[in-house]
Amino acid sequence: MPDRFHMKFADQRRGGTLAPTQSLLSSMRTVERREWWLWLSAVLITLLLTVGLVSFIIPMLQGEHWGWLELPHSARGLVALVLLFDVYVLYQQSQIYRIRDRLIQREELFRLITENAADMIAVVDAEDRRLYSSPSYEKILGYSPQEMQDTSSLEHVHPEDRQLVEEAGKEARNAGVGRRIEYRMRHRDGTWRLFESTASTILDAEGKSGKLVIVNRDITGRRRLEDQFRQAQKMEAVGRLSGGIAHDFNNILGVIIGYGEILQDSVKETDPLAGCVKEILGAGKRAATLTRQLLAFSRQQVLEPKVVDLNSIVTDTEKMLRRLIGEDIELSTVLDPNLSRVKADQGQIEQVILNLSVNARDAMPNGGKLTIRTENSEMTEVDVRRYSYPVKPGRYVLLTVTDTGVGMDVATQGHIFEPFFTTKEKGKGTGLGLATVYGVVKQSDGYIEVHSEVGVGTVFKIYLPQVDEPVEVERRSVGEAPAMHGQETVLLVEDEEALCKLTRNILESLGYTVLEACNGAEACEVSRQHRETIHLVLSDVVMPGMNGPALATQLAAQRPEIRVLYMSGYTGQGVGQGVLPAGSNFLAKPFTRESLALKVRDVLKAEPATSTR
């Protein structure tokens, strides 16, 4: 009976699942009741035999006056054996019950392990036929136990990985323990999932290996997170490299553009070299635009964040976008009237919308629909868990740009934010559009995600933190043309010799008295030795030894009335976000003579400020 029961139980498991606990216990109780009836029947029979034997012995005792002790040894032994047999039957049945109870516990433990294990567990024979598949196969791959039973162990393996699986199986049978491998298996919905697998052999009675126990772990999600993490590291490394190159290149461009402007002023329009000078300046300004895009990607450009209304920015750029994308593309905006405010650089947010719209236009060569949507959104603790990178829970403004273009595959999506990566034809794109978007969003403490499907379209979602402050209105002076000349004293601090010489020449040509220093320590010494008033310090932000803000603090202690104007190709952070104090005056490199002159006049006309100004 125990053998029959275990055969039945094994049959219940061949389909890939184990019988539920209640069914198992019910079957066991039924078997036990039957066995108990059989053993009780045997006991009753032996008792009847004993009674029959005694019925013959008692008349003998009554007729011949024998006592129990006077019975023949054979008769007493026979009675004793019958009674001993009854006791043995009861003892055997109690031992069987204990063993069976232990088997139930072990089977229940095995069921709990296999049914709740996250890994897929399978047993295959020497011909790679499935003998057992754990319930996790259905949970992970979607196949029913019967579907798994009717297929070989290699049928769902990716064709490119079958040889690897076969070699690992042979190695496991020969060595006893298989090596760890990774291969793909097809899900019921047709997609491929990546698994990490190990195999070990089951030895038969002769010590030969036959069956294999295979444990598969789904690492699809883990591999995706690893790829995303590596991508983030690569983007960070490329960003640092791009930022460093752009910073040094900006200094060179500043010299080229500056001296180009001086040369342009000294050459008449009729001069044959006038066109050459114009081309030099044009190339320099185009190069300056590229470096600004690189700095935006590397999050090392200097932003001037203000509290803005995103709806107003979208509305202001809508007319320009309609001209830009063409008449064959339908542009629609869905703006939340109760949209919260964000703190960002308005010009850079306009650039983000422009770049995404141009990217959408290029993805719809035969026309389509472009939708720009704004809405309030909230990231909960549960929501942020779906991201592989750190995301702060909180309230955000969500900007969504959707197109019905050609879409992108997964491989392309993994590279779209890299600088100089483009799917366009040669000469039709720099590959910096989406890289700029990525850098601006990240530097604005926001997040960007993309969802795309080939033949369906692409959705870009940008999350910017909400703020409760009122919108800052930009005040623009209206009147006569701004003055560009002055007679004040300017302390120029620049560690790049060529750019320092050029800036000094420009300032002196505008009428200013210029004091020059190549670093912070030298600037402090020049300030101490100069007895006259120093109206303005024009300082680079990043310098060896002492940076611009530290220099401004020391100079303000000596000269409280001094004004400060910072200049740099990048700072690594925006104004008010660490390096430069909030409200600081800033001039981005490379600058033209006109932008330098106007910025210097603006700062000198402003009210005196603290050392952070």
Descriptive account of the structure:
With 613 residues, the chain is of the alpha/beta class. It folds into five domains: 2-115; 120-218, 2-Layer Sandwich (Beta-Lactamase), CATH 3.30.450; 223-297, Signal transduction histidine kinase, dimerisation/phosphotransfer (DHp) domain (Helix Hairpins, Orthogonal Bundle); 306-467, 2-Layer Sandwich (Heat Shock Protein 90); 489-605, Rossmann fold, CATH 3.40.50.2300. The protein is built from 16 helices and 17 strands. Strands 6, 7, 8, 9, 10, 11 and 12 form a seven-stranded mixed beta sheet that branches. A hairpin with a 5-residue loop joins strand 4 (192-203) and strand 5. Helix 7 (220-266) runs antiparallel to helix 8 (274-297) and helix 7 crosses helix 13. It is elongated, with a radius of gyration of 43 Å. The model is unreliable at 1-21 and 571-578 (pLDDT under 50).
